Automatic annotation (TrEMBL):
Domain of life: Eukaryota
Reactions listed under catalytic activity: (R)-2-hydroxyglutarate + pyruvate = (R)-lactate + 2-oxoglutarate; (R)-lactate + 2 Fe(III)-[cytochrome c] = 2 Fe(II)-[cytochrome c] + pyruvate + 2 H(+); (R)-malate + A = oxaloacetate + AH2
Stated role: Catalyzes the oxidation of D-2-hydroxyglutarate (D-2-HG) to alpha-ketoglutarate. Also catalyzes the oxidation of other D-2-hydroxyacids, such as D-malate (D-MAL) and D-lactate (D-LAC). Exhibits high activities towards D-2-HG and D-MAL but a very weak activity towards D-LAC.
Protein name, as recorded: D-2-hydroxyglutarate dehydrogenase, mitochondrial
Record key words, sorted: FAD, Flavoprotein, Metal-binding, Mitochondrion, Oxidoreductase, Transit peptide, Zinc
Gene3D superfamilies per UniProt: 3.30.465.10, 3.30.70.2190, 3.30.70.2740, Uridine Diphospho-n-acetylenolpyruvylglucosamine Reductase, domain 2, Vanillyl-alcohol Oxidase, Chain A, domain 4
A GO term from the CC aspect: mitochondrion
Database matches in InterPro entries: FAD-bd_oxidored_4_C, FAD-bd_PCMH, FAD-bd_PCMH-like_sf, FAD-bd_PCMH_sub1, FAD-bd_PCMH_sub2, FAD-linked_Oxase-like_C, FAD-oxidored/transferase_4, Oxid_FAD_bind_N
Annotated localization: Mitochondrion
Length: 484
């Protein structure tokens, strides 16, 4: 668990009193609208990794935008700090309080507002769980343009607030493109109704973009309007073994050329990530022989025969050219799910030792895996990594959305120690900066990276972020102690 010795509670924030609870109860008259029971608060105070933990005494669960507005207006007037929370699956400590901030959970705002079957535009409450949105769409021939391992818990509002990337960004692009409108409660309680449904609208600043990826620091997203593509009729998944990182890159180039419009995901995993996942899943690996690197390719299109033929010819030529050494193709839906598990379960598998340091970075493709090697070498030199309990580090593994230039470096640890931390930081951030990468590709900065923004943003950029924050949230009540 993180300790926060260097951060002091901001004393300009009011401490919660019974009169505040009474007010919240008067606004939220639904059954579980105001949660104060200690046991019930646990889930909301601690993050998914069990690494960051706050001590809030209250969780509020409004059901309407008007209720959110009334709460935020009151908190702003009283200077009560708020942390907005979606599904609490964020990986940078942004979704939980640092001290005693009021937790505003969107979990009771989960209605579908409308769906247009012609345009594919979905309008929904921000607290709708991603998987539920996708199930609703699948019944209507559409697909949510975002997919990620936490889909069963994360909210679409949380996805927008973090600008989540996920497994199919390669195909459907970022939420900056697919989100068409938002409804947001600003820090003074004003409701900004910007729930547009236009693909083209060049009338001044595109205001919604300000909130996409703002991580709960500028406003509370209560509604999302999003353009959803037609659901592909045919899916294929191939799981491949390759002998070098060089081969991973070459296979990607080959896949883009040969599979072109049907390529919907291109993920890579190193051998060590698969070793951890095998332990976690307690099942044999899909490929018999071990390989230094693995690739998961998904194709999706409208014609199974066409896609099968394309995939087969791609695999044949990749084998002939010596790019891939072995591989299997899922034969049915169950196998599709099983193969995806060997990629999607790595985040969970990496917590096998008890703790994990996560780095989610963008790097130029040729440099990308070099970071994992550099970190492993540093940990080896410091004699901190090994198979037995005397070593704090279990392993350093690399995997991710290679098609997007996005590496996930997970350092699985048996315990959190200062020795390990000193080796990792700022080394990792300096390394990324030296390659002109980003210290956060898709998870955001949250609490974990609050002091490291300057590795990826210039002073001028940081000033503009702060100016915006100060203008809209002069009391600093929204998600304090985080990156801005
Ligand atoms: P939370 O964790 O609750 O909150 C995240 C941040 O957004 C916080 O700062 C919070 O204050 C803010 N926030 C949440 N809801 C709102 C709102 N309505 N209004 C304003 N601010 C809000 N991320 C990826 O990008 N790609 C992946 O592939 C991916 N895979 C994951 C797999 C696993 C197993 C896990 C555990 C996480 C993964 N994540 C991934 C990270 C995480 O799921 C995403 O960041 C997700 O978008 C967070 O959504 P959430 O609803 O859980 O938000
Ligand atoms: C993924 O792609 C997620 O699986 C999580 O972004 C990555 O846990 C991680 O580091
Ligand atoms: Zn990811």
């Amino acid at each position: 668990r993180e300790k926060y010795p260097k951060i002091k509670r901001n004393d300009s924030f009011k401490k919660l009193e019974q009169e505040d609870i009474n007010f919240f109860k008067s606004v939220l008259q639904n059954d579980n609208g105001v949660v104060t029971n200690k046991d019930d608060l646990e889930f909301f105070n601690e993050d998914w990794m069990r690494k960051y933990r706050g001590e809030s005494a209250v969780v509020l669960k409004p059901k309407t935008v008007q209720e959110v507005s009334q709460i935020v207006k009151y908190c702003n007037e009283k200077k009560l700090a708020i942390v907005p929370q979606g599904g609490n699956t964020g990986l940078v400590g942004g979704s939980v309080p640092v001290f005693d901030e009021v937790i505003l959970s969107l979990s009771s705002m989960k209605k579908i507002r409308s769906f247009d079957k012609v345009s594919g535009i979905l309008k929904a409450d921000a607290g709708l769980i991603l998987e539920n949105a996708d199930i609703y769409l699948s019944e209507r021939g559409y697909i949510f343009p975002l997919d990620l391992g936490a889909k069963g818990s994360c909210h679409i509002g949380g996805n927008v607030a973090t600008n989540a990337g996920g497994l199919r960004l390669l195909r459907y692009g970022s939420l900056h493109g697919s989100v068409l409108g938002l409804e947001v409660v600003l820090p003074d309680g004003t409701i900004l109704d910007s729930m547009h449904s236009l693909r083209k609208d060049n009338t001044g600043y595109d205001l919604k973009q300000m909130f996409i990826g703002s991580e709960g620091t500028l406003g509370i997203i209560t509604g999302v309007s999003i353009l959803c593509p037609a659901r592909p009729k045919a899916f294929n998944v191939a799981f491949l073994g390759v002998s070098s990182y060089e081969a991973v890159q070459k296979t990607f180039v080959h896949a883009r050329g040969e599979l072109s419009e049907i390529l919907s995901a291109f993920e890579f995993m190193d051998s060590k990530s698969q070793k951890l996942t095998a332990k976690h899943l307690n099942s044999p690996h899909p490929l018999d022989d071990p390989f230094p690197f693995y690739i998961l390719i998904e194709t999706s299109g409208s014609n199974k025969e066409h896609d099968d033929a394309k995939l087969e010819s791609f695999l044949e030529s990749a084998m002939e050219n010596g790019l891939i050494d072995d591989g299997i193709v899922a034969q049915d839906e169950t196998q599709v799910q099983t193969l995806w598990q060997w990629r999607e379960q790595i985040p969970e598998a990496s917590t096998i030792g008890g703790g994990v340091y996560k780095y989610d970075v963008s790097l130029p493709l040729p440099d990308l895996y070099g970071l994992v090697e550099a970190v492993r070498a540093k940990l080896n030199d410091a004699n901190l990594i090994g198979e037995t309990d005397e070593f704090p580090v279990v392993d350093a593994v690399g995997y991710g959305h290679i098609g997007d230039g996005n590496l996930h470096l997970n350092v699985a640890v048996r315990r959190y120690t200062k020795d390990v931390e000193k080796v990792l930081e700022p080394f990792v951030y300096e390394w990324i900066q030296s390659k002109k990468g980003s210290i956060s590709a898709e998870h955001g900065l949250g609490f974990q990276k609050k002091n490291y923004i300057h590795y990826s943003k210039s002073d001028q950029e940081i000033k503009m972020i702060k100016d915006l924050k100060n203008h809209y949230d002069p009391n600093g009540i929204l998600n304090p102690y985080k990156y801005v």
